[in-house]
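Question: Now follow the chain.
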Amino acid sequence: MHALIVVAHHDPRSLTHSIATRIAEGIAHANPADTFEIADLAAEGFDPRFGFADHAVHHREASPPADVLAEQARIDRAEALVLVYPIYWWSMPALLKGWIDRVFSNGWAFDFSLDKPFIKQLQRLRVHLVGVGGADADSFQRHGYDEAMTTQIDHGIFDYCGAQVMSSQRLLESETLDPSIHLETAFALGQRLFIRSSEAAWAHADAECVQPV
């Protein structure tokens, strides 16, 4: 089994990067035969701007640009997609959102045209979401931000394409809690990543944050 771990943070020393690394270590520890790749979008210089070329792809007037094809190939090689990101303004950072905007394109992630039935094309893909935030769970629950993020990301993006969100965690109070707490959680996630869904019914975790990590 193979996992693609996508991390969207500009600072390689951040807790976000450390969490991605610990997930990878958990995968390797659970089964040395399983593999992973870490896609560091910031270090790799991925351009998140949805431009004219991407617009043409959406309208089925052109093939995806080379950088988009490369990202789609990465996902095609993986059974599991893990997104690790800091929560900015109760959502994902622009770098990751732009990656999704461009990579999850019409004709690959879904098939939309006016004269045919809509088709979800990523039904084989299993997704794990790990948001890292500075606020506490009560802040998200009190204002409804946790439910809004689940609707926007888990359902609005991945269910739209047919991908199954296997776990959705928000590792909160990242600037006040002992980092080892979240790193332990990340390692456990990696260890359980390829357990069949029938063996691991993971509940969606609470909360989120606005603070850069």
Summary: The beta strands are 2-7, 35-40, 80-86, 110-111, 119-120, 126-132, 164-171. The helical segments are 15-30, 41-44, 52-58, 66-76, 94-103, 137-143, 145-161, 179-192. The CA atoms of residues 52 and 169 lie 34 Å apart.
